[in-house]
C-alpha cells in the first residue's frame, strides 16, 4: 500500500535534511578548522591573478577566493593562494592540495564529467584569439598558414588551435610550452610569430609585457567559446553550494545595485530582495551552514561582480561584453535568493 505523504511528514523530512545540510561538509569543516581557505590560482595573469609589488594577490579570480573567505569566515583575508600551472591545476584540486580552483579554467564536458570536478558556474565569458607583431602586417587569422605559434600545454587552447587550422586546411608550427611565463618570453623574444590564448589573456599580456603595446595587434577572429568558472571536487555537495552561491551573490548584488560602498546603508532597505540578501529576512545563510550575513560580508569586504571587473579588468582596456548583466545585454544572471 502506498502511503500518501502528509504535510507534517514533508516538513519533518525537510527539517532533517536542512539540519544535516547546515552541519557542513568535509571541505568547509576542514577549512574552518585550519582557519583559512586554500585557493588555487594562476601563476600570474594581470587582471585575473597576480601578486602586486607588495606581494598581495590581485585580480578577479583572487577576488572570488576572497568572496568565498568572506562567506565562510566572515573575513575575506582568511585565504592562502597556491599558484598553479595549467598542468598542475586539476591534480591539485583532486588531491586536496587546494579547496577551490579559481584559475581562468574553461568549463568543458570532459572536465566536468571525467576529472571528478564540479564547476560552480561561469565568472567570465571569453574566447580564444591570436596576437601577432604589427611588423608582420597580418590582418586575419586566415593569413597564418605556416606560422610558428606559441601555445601553453595542458589547455583547451591546444585542441582549439589544431581544430581551427585543420578546418581551414592550413598548417602551423606549434611551439608548445608548459609555463605561461616561458610562453610569453618565447613570443616576445620572437621564437614564434603568433601567440594564442584567450582574448583576455592576450590583452593582459600586451598591456603588461610588451615594451610598446601598440606594436602588437589582436586579430579579429575569436575561434572558440571559453566559459571560465571556479571548480570544486565531486562528493561534497555542501561545499559546492557554498561556492556556487558565493558566485551568485556577487552577480545578484550588482543586479540589486548593492556595492561595497552602499551596502551598509542599503541594509536598512524595506525591499524584500535586499532584506533577504543582507540577512535581515529569512534564514538563507543557515541553509548554507553559514551566518545569515554571509552575502552582506561578501559585498562589504570584496564588492559585487561589476566592482571586481572595474577594479581589475577595465584598466586593461577590456570591455565587459558578454560579461555584462543580463539586463544590460550580457549573460551574467543569478538565480533569485528566495
Tell me what you see in this structure.
The structure is a single chain. This protein has 338 residues and is of the alpha/beta class. The protein has 2 domains: 24-125 and 228-328, 3-Layer(aba) Sandwich (D-Maltodextrin-Binding Protein, domain 2); 128-224, 3-Layer(aba) Sandwich (D-Maltodextrin-Binding Protein, domain 2), CATH 3.40.190. It has helices at 7-22, 26-34, 60-73, 89-95, 109-114, 156-167, 180-188, 199-209, 237-256, 263-266, 272-278, 284-287, 294-301, 305-312; strands at residues 37-42, 50-51, 57-58, 79-84, 100-101, 117-119, 124-126, 128-133, 147-152, 172-177, 194-198, 216-218, 226-228, 231-233. The strands form 5 sheets. It has a 5-stranded mixed β-sheet with strand order 10-9-11-8-12, sandwiched between helices. A hairpin with a 5-residue loop joins β2 and β3. The model is unreliable at 1-24 (pLDDT under 50).
Amino acid at each position: 500500500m502506498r502511503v500518501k505523504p502528509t504535510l507534517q511528514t514533508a516538513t519533518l523530512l525537510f527539517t532533517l535534511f536542512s539540519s544535516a545540510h547546515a552541519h557542513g561538509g568535509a571541505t568547509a569543516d576542514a577549512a574552518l578548522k585550519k582557519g583559512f581557505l586554500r585557493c588555487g590560482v594562476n601563476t600570474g595573469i594581470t587582471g585575473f591573478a597576480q601578486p602586486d609589488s607588495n606581494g598581495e594577490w590581485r585580480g578577479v579570480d583572487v577576488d572570488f577566493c576572497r568572496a568565498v573567505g568572506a562567506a565562510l569566515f566572515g573575513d575575506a583575508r582568511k585565504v592562502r593562494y597556491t599558484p598553479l600551472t595549467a598542468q598542475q591545476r586539476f591534480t591539485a584540486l583532486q588531491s586536496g592540495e587546494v579547496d577551490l580552483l579559481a584559475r581562468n579554467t574553461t568549463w568543458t564536458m570532459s572536465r566536468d564529467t571525467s576529472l571528478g570536478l564540479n564547476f560552480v558556474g561561469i565568472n567570465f565569458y571569453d574566447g580564444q584569439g591570436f596576437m601577432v607583431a604589427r611588423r608582420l602586417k597580418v590582418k586575419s587569422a586566415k593569413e597564418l598558414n605556416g606560422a610558428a605559434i606559441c601555445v601553453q600545454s595542458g589547455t583547451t587552447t591546444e585542441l582549439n588551435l589544431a581544430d581551427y587550422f585543420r578546418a581551414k586546411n592550413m598548417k602551423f608550427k606549434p611551439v608548445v610550452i608548459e609555463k605561461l611565463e616561458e610562453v610569453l618570453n618565447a613570443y616576445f623574444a620572437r621564437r614564434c610569430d603568433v601567440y594564442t590564448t584567450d582574448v583576455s589573456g592576450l590583452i593582459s599580456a600586451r598591456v603588461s609585457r610588451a615594451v610598446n603595446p601598440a606594436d602588437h595587434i589582436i586579430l579579429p577572429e575569436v575561434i572558440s567559446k571559453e566559459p571560465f568558472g571556479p571548480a570544486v571536487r565531486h562528493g561534497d555537495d555542501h561545499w559546492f553550494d557554498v561556492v556556487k552561491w558565493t558566485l551568485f551573490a556577487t552577480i545578484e548584488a550588482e543586479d540589486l545595485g548593492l556595492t561595497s560602498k552602499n551596502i551598509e546603508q542599503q541594509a536598512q532597505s524595506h525591499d524584500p530582495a535586499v532584506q533577504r540578501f543582507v540577512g535581515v529576512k529569512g534564514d538563507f545563510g543557515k541553509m548554507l551552514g553559514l551566518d545569515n550575513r554571509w552575502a552582506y560580508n561578501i559585498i562589504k569586504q570584496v564588492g559585487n561582480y561589476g566592482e571586481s571587473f572595474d577594479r581589475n579588468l577595465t584598466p586593461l582596456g577590456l570591455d565587459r561584453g558578454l560579461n555584462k548583466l543580463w539586463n544590460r545585454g550580457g549573460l551574467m544572471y543569478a538565480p533569485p535568493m528566495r
